[in-house]
Amino acid sequence: MKRRTGQDRSITQNWRPATQAVRGGTARSEWGETSEAIFLTSGYAYDCAGDAAARFAGEQDGMTYSRLQNPTVQMLEERIALLEGAEACRTMATGMAAMTAVLLCQLSQGDHVVAGRAAFGSCRWLVDSLLPRFGIETTTVDARDPQQFADAVKPNTRVFFFETPANPTMDVVDLAAVCGIARERGITSVVDNAFATPALQRPLEFGADVVAYSATKMMDGQGRVLAGAVAGPRDFIEETLLSFTRNTGPTLSAFNAWVVLKGLETLDLRIRKQSENSLTVGTFLESRVPRILHPGLPSHPQHELAMRQMEASGPIFAFHVDGGRAQAHALLDALKLIDISNNIGDSRSLMTHPASTTHASVSPENRREMGIDEGMLRFNVGLEDPQDLIEDLDQALRAVGL
Ligand SMILES: *Cc1c(COP(=O)(O)O)cnc(C)c1O
Q1: Closest atom of ligand 1 relative to the 163 alpha carbon
Q2: 123 C-beta closer than 6 A to ligand 1
Q3: Per-residue pLDDT at 1
Q4: Measured in angstroms, how far is the CA atom of residue 96 from the centroid of ligand 1?
Q5: Are 199 and 83 within 8 A, CB to CB?
Q6: CA of residue 79 to ligand 1 center, whole Å
Q7: 260-271 pLDDT, tens per residue?
Q8: Domain extents for the chain?
Q9: Is the CB of residue 125 less than 8 Å from the CB of residue 99?
Q10: Which of 80, 120, 172 for mutating ligand 1's site (highest number of atoms within 8 Å of CB)?
Q11: With a 6 A CB cut-off, is 211 part of the ligand 1 pocket?
Q12: Cα–Cα distance between 47 and 259 in angstroms, integer?
């Protein structure tokens, strides 16, 4: 039935990613709508009591309750699975709901996790504060060095958890090396792919077991909704993750799923253009600031690795000023076009001071270890004309004596 080709893997898996991003997962209703429908319903009605019983017994296909299934949400899950090259995907209300679920669904008291130390502030909180409260041991390592993962392994190590490029230091992790170490030892590797998205980097192709996302970032890409996703093997999603999420309830709303479906239609275009703009602006900034951390620039110590794993370097980079928090804040305050905002992946250019915002909850000692100092700024380059961004930066840099 042509209305449902978007859900037929024998057809969709042959499509190229740009086609999957527009059509993957689409299932049209009896009305044949071209754009995916928003099914704002919390429940479903049955033709007879026997049908209800059969559905609850798992003997009949169909939906029972929107904490468990929803047609709009299911379209998004199928689309993300296709883009990531994963057997299955489960979406979540936020990126952090996805990170929490992907860890807690598979870990128990007495297990051990090795995590990259450079990470999104809340991901560090999960590793440093939440997991230990439940008797789960954690070790953080410099994820740029795969050997540190191997050296940290204990008999009870169950999970490697890291992001690449990492927020906000732009550390790049060698996916093939680290996931290979996990595979050899029967450890599950979980990669936070929020910065790159599957449009630029598909960790499963490098041997990762599970990918987790904030879809709030590039996937929505226009700063509208929060969303998260976990993609991986069908048995992990359906047997390990699903019972956790169905019973704890971090479910994505159908409306937000629909917004992300619309975002995905333009993901490839946006991320390539934003990557290009980010390189243009980064090249300008490199001559004006003491230090820049941009995976797309040859000055980044892991530039070659980044370019081997990623199709483009993405919209985000970080840089340092020498004058600490005072100069960093003054630079932000002098900007006229670029917003002071801690979001990323937006089509608008946004800049933030990680030490006083996204990573304020990380202890000063851990911040130092991660390489976040008081003079660091993180920049998400949007879709504006890069020349306007350069002119705004230029006047702000002058205003603070740079
Ligand atoms: C934003 C972000 C998250 C959290 O996602 P939310 O949608 O804000 O909950 C997790 N990891 C990384 C790398 C992020 O950038």
Answers
A1: 13
A2: yes
A3: 65
A4: 6
A5: yes
A6: 20
A7: 999 999 999 999
A8: 9-265, 268-399
A9: no
A10: 120
A11: no
A12: 31
Express as a percent the part of the chain with pLDDT over 90. Answer: 96
Provide CATH code, domain 268-399.
Answer: 3.90.1150.10
The per-residue pLDDT for range 94-147, each reduced to its tens digit, is 999 999 999 999 999 999 999 999 999 899 999 999 999 999 999 999 999 999
Tokens of 82: 């296709």
Mean of the per-residue pLDDT values of the chain: 96
- With a cut of 70, list the residues of the chain below it in pLDDT: 1
CA distance 219 to 92: 13
Pick from 307, 337, 321, 310: nearest CA to 378 = 321
Question: Does the pTM exceed 0.90?
Answer: yes
Q: Which CATH number fits domain 9-265: 3.40.640.10, 3.40.630.30, 1.25.40.10, 3.40.50.11440?
A: 3.40.640.10
Q: 190, 160 in Cβ contact below 8 A?
A: yes
Q: Is 302 in the pocket of ligand 1 (CB under 6 A)?
A: no
Tokens of 344: 């990323």
Residue 392 is which amino acid? D
Distance CA 264, CA 227 (A): 13
Please tell me if the CB atom of residue 306 comes closer than 6 angstroms to any atom of ligand 1.
no
Alpha-carbon distance of 79 to 318, in angstroms, equals: 31
Tokens of 121: 């502030």
Q: Cis omega before residue 168 (within 30°)?
A: yes
